[in-house]
Design a protein that fits this description.
Blueprint: H1 5-11, E1 35-38, E2 43-48, E3 54-59, E4 70-75, E5 81-83, E6 86-88, E7 108-115, E8 121-127, E9 133-142, E10 145-155, E11 160-167, E12 173-180, H2 181-185, H3 191-194, E13 201-206, E14 210-213, E15 222-227, E16 233-238, E17 243-248, E18 253-259, E19 263-269, E20 275-280, H4 283-292, E21 301-307, E22 312-319, E23 327-333, E24 336-341, E25 346-350
Parallel strand pairs: 6-10
Antiparallel strand pairs: 1-25, 2-3, 3-4, 4-5, 7-8, 8-9, 9-10, 11-12, 12-13, 13-14, 15-16, 16-17, 17-18, 19-20, 20-21, 21-22, 23-24, 24-25
InterPro entries: 6-blade_b-propeller_TolB-like, Serum_paraoxonase/arylesterase, SGL
Protein name: SMP-30/Gluconolaconase/LRE-like region-containing protein
Signal peptide: 1-21
């Protein structure tokens, strides 16, 4: 997931910040193969609720820092968006016993929904507000909607900015560490972040081994992440490396690199075992938009479907600038695909984008 306010703070971009006039909101108009759903804070990551009727959204501050990072809910029937109510009730077995409840509202980034061994739903949330941590939430029904109960957490002391997270079958998780704060503080114009060098790595947590760095997992700005159903492989986006990489947990090394012609952000599994990836094709356009705080960044957006069995991919969508403002995630809902973004005011619905089962 592309960094927004969090990256700006980390990189001390004060010298590059310039004043900007109120930007004109682009038209919310459908096109060939897509329908925009507008009027919301940027939905950077998406998960579908356990009953299938809602989307859980993590909202970014946008490129102008004009939004509050938080968890939200979209009713798929009405397309209405509201904030997710979060209550707090710690429970043993959800994260580290020593990790305390957050003192402030969650600054949500990457999210991942899974089912725990006891059948209960679990929503993992990368949090930047007050600490770098992975928060354990339990989504529960709340009348005709959903709320979440904070159950526990794992705080990172890796001195790196976390990005996305995915649960593992043993009750743990893998999380991407995009870059170290110290290394990037001296890079206010993003040259090192965007030139393809290895800036980050993978971290894994389990109750038995705690949070630790995975051997030989270094990569260019690791971004979105998913874990295979058998728990043996980690698939993650090497963002400015223009690829999705497979890390084998037994061999403890990267064993495959799927090359793409765009910067892949978040990843999600389809029902038939493919990976959906969304992103932007031009690193320098992103750089200009980030440094100039252009909320409606004039960037194309791409969604691709990756077959992890043979490492092939094909595009589901490529739209030019003005349609979506920083594609960051794609999620299957039936045959449809919803595409979120790290900036702007909308997501896209791609009707019947996936083949019938």
């Amino acid at each position: 997931m592309t960094q927004l306010r969090w990256l700006g703070v980390a990189l001390a971009l004060a010298a590059s910040v310039s004043s900007h006039a109120t930007q004109q909101v682009p038209a919310c108009a459908a096109g060939n193969g897509y329908t925009p759903i507008c009027g919301m804070a940027p939905p950077e990551d998406l998960e579908r609720s356990p009953d299938g009727g809602f989307l859980f959204l993590s909202t970014t501050p946008g490129l102008t820092n004009s939004h509050r990072s938080r968890l939200r809910i979209m009713d798929l029937a009405s397309r209405q968006v509201s904030d997710m109510l979060i209550e707090s009730q710690i429970e043993p077995g959800w994260g580290e016993a020593s990790c305390k409840a957050p003192l402030a509202a969650l600054g949500a980034h990457g999210i991942h929904l899974s089912t725990r061994a006891d059948g209960r739903a679990q929503l993992l949330v990368v949090n930047h507000n007050g600490r770098e941590s992975v928060e354990f939430l339990e989504p529960v029904r709340d009348g005709n909607s959903w709320k979440a109960i904070w159950r526990g957490c794992v705080e990172s002391h890796d001195a790196s900015m976390l990005n996305d997270v995915a649960a593992t079958p043993d009750g743990g998780f893998v999380v991407t560490a995009m870059f170290s704060f110290s290394a990037m503080k001296a890079d206010p114009h993003l040259e090192q972040l965007l030139d393809g060098r290895a800036t980050g790595h993978l971290l894994a947590w389990s109750s038995a081994h705690g949070l630790h760095r995975l051997t030989a997992s270094e990569a260019p700005a690791p971004n979105g992440v998913q874990v295979s159903q058998d728990g043996q492989s980690v698939w993650f986006s090497a963002w400015p490396g223009n690829g999705v990489w497979q890390y084998d947990l037994q061999q403890q090394k990267v064993v495959r690199k799927v090359a793409l012609d765009f910067l892949p952000d978040n990843l999600s599994w389809t029902l038939d075992g493919h990976l959906l990836a969304a992103g932007v094709p031009d690193a320098q356009t992103f750089r200009r938009c980030f440094l100039s705080h252009d909320e409606f960044c004039p960037s194309a957006s791409v969604v691709a479907l990756i077959d992890p069995r043979n490492g092939t991919s094909h595009e589901l969508l490529r739209v030019q600038e003005g349609v979506l403002f920083g594609a960051s995630t794609a999620l299957q809902v039936g045959r449809d695909v919803f595409v979120g973004a790290f900036a702007g005011d909308r997501l896209l619905l791609l009707p019947d984008a996936l083949p019938a089962p």
